[in-house]
Amino acid sequence: MKAVWKFPLITTDEQTIMLPSEAEPLAVQVQHGDPCLWCLVDTQIHTEPRRIRIIGTGHEIGSGFSGKYIGTYQLNNGSFIGHVFIL
To answer: What are phi and psi of 77, to 5 degrees?
Structure first.
């Protein structure tokens, strides 16, 4: 069975969240002041740890970066803009 699940994010350089292995990212937005990731998931598949990296506009990424871009969000009326990648 498929469903859309929400995964709250923390505005930090890297974090680990539990996602089903075949999760399909749909959107990254702010809800009630907190960034969240919404994914289409198969509810029958067990979750596994996935690393998430948030890079602010203008921040260094580093050489050899190979994350997959999944979305952008803004906080504090645009004073921080975070670009979200799955590693």
So the answer is: 55, 35
The structural domains of the chain, with segments of one domain joined by +, span 2-86
Low-confidence stretches of the chain (pLDDT beneath 50): none
DSSP category for residue 28: E
pTM score over 0.90: yes
The pLDDT tens digits for 64-83 are 999 999 999 999 999 999 99
In sequence order, which residues have a C-beta less than 8 Å from that of residue 25 and are 6 or more positions away?
37, 38, 39, 70, 71, 86
DSSP string computed for 62-83: -TT--PEEEEEEEEGGGTEEEE
C-alpha 35/C-alpha 74 separation (Å) is: 8
Asked if 61 and 53 touch (Cβ cutoff 8 Å), the reply is: no
For residue 71, give both structure tokens: 């979305």
